[in-house]
Target: Histidine phosphotransferase
Amino acid sequence: MSGTSSPGPAPDALELAALLCSRVCHDLISPVGAIVNGLEVLDDNPKPEDRDFALDLIRKSAKTASARLQFCRLAFGAAGSSGAQIDLGDAQNMAKGHIEDGKVALTWNLPRLLLPKNRVKLLLNMLVVAQQTIPRGGTLTIDPVGEGEAMSFRITAAGLNARVPQNIVDLLNATSPNTVDAHAVQPHYTRLLAEACGLKVTLALDGDKVIIAAS
Model:
C-alpha cells in the first residue's frame, strides 16, 4: 500500500462560490455580532458609562465590518469586468484596513500603479495566507518581484513563533489529501489565482521568518 495520499476532490465552480461566501460570512460574523450586542445594551436604557461603552463598541465594530467588506470585495469578488486593472494604492488601503489590527503591521514596498485585477487579488490572498503564519502577530513586508504588469510579489512574515502550516503548503501545491472546505478554501483559491496569472505560490521558512512568494 502506498504511503502517500492522493489529493482530495477539488470543488466545482458552484461549490467554490459557496465556500468563498462562507469565508466572507465568517469574517463578518464577529464585528456584526458586536454591533448587535451594542444595540441591545442601548435598548436597555443603560447608565451613561454603559451607553458610552456601547456606542464605542458599535463605532469600532462598524469600522471593522466596513474594512473587511471592502477587502473581501476586492480579494474574492469580481472587482470590475474581465481585463480590468486595479490601483495598487487602493489595494494597500484595503489591506491595511483589514489586516492591521493591533497585532499585525504592514510594510508596503510596492509602487503605486495599475495591475491586472487577478494579480492584485492574488496579492491580497497571499497576505491572508501570510497572516496565518504569524498567529501571535508581527510584521508583513511586501516587496515587488519584477516590474510593470508582469510584477509579482514576495511577502516576508516576521513574528514570534512564525510557522509554516503544512496543510496550507499542501493546498498551495495541490497535494492536500483532504477535501477543500470553508477553512481550506482561501489557500486553494490563492493557488487558482496564481495559475490564472501563470504563476506558482510557494511558502517556506527562512530562518525565523516565513516567505510567501509568487513566481
Q: What stands out?
A: Helices lie at 13-43, 48-76, 88-99, 117-131, 166-172, 185-196. The radius of gyration is 19 Å. Residues 82 and 213 are 25 Å apart (CA to CA). The first strand starts at residue 85 and ends at 87.
